[in-house]
Amino acid sequence: MQSEPILRALVAAAAVLATSVPLAAAAQSSANTTTKVDRASGAAAATETTTATATVVAVDTAHRLFSLKLDKGRVVEMEAGPEVRNFDQIKVGDTVRAEYVRSLTLSLKKDGKGTPGQSSSTQTMGAAPGETPAARTGSQVTLLADVLKVNKEANSLTLRGPNGKIVDLAIADPAQLALVKVGDQVEAVYTEALALKLEPATPAK
Question: Looking at residue 165, what DSSP letter applies?
């Protein structure tokens, strides 16, 4: 679904989500990524899950920084935000386990009456005092667009989103396209979530 213009528009509109991207992007060389696509009448969803591990090779307590070495030897520096509680427990040799999930869902709103626009929300959670350092962050952007044109020859929809922005959305399935008419609305929800946990290099006694 990444080739669809609506996704690029969503990503551009949701630049605030970039706060949770660096670790996932940096970990690609040591990551395992799976993608799942689901379709139903008038709806579609794609979810990408990336899991990665890295080893702590340096800790700068004064500036709340730590360096991670990935499986292929690449070293990246990360900043532990306020959501990473118990930072003083992080030691050289610890292992970072991270799971990064991003998803996009598209759903058809027949004869939609909503006003085209977008909304966003974020959530951050940290470990409880005394627990192993951990953090979970999540962000979600919801976009609602009007259907201006149904182009059956090109298998696409022309949508008008927030601020009158016009985008074309490719619909590969003719059966899905047949469900849509001018006056309907399409809702897109883009979600990113990152869960990070540091584990001791040796079991606690």
Answer: -
Pull the structure tokens for residue 178: 């047949």
> Which of 72, 2, 7 lies closest to 35 in space, CA to CA?
2
Distance CA 66, CA 56 (A): 7
| Alpha carbon distance 96, 200 (integer Å) | 9
Q: What is the CA radius of gyration of the chain?
A: 21
Q: What's the 3-state SS for 82-103?
A: CCCCCHHHCCCCCEEEEEEEEE
Residue burial 27-55, b: 16+ Cβ < 10 Å; e: rest: beebbeeeeeeeeeeeebbbebbbbbbbb
Structure tokens at 33: 């990524």
- How do residues 152-205 score in pLDDT, each as one tens digit? 999 888 999 888 888 888 787 888 899 999 999 999 888 888 776 766 554 444
The pTM of the whole model exceeds 0.85: no
Taking the CA atoms of residue 143, residue 144, residue 147 and residue 150 in that order, the dihedral angle to the nearest 10 degrees is 40
Q: Which pair of tokens denotes residue 59?
A: 């800790």
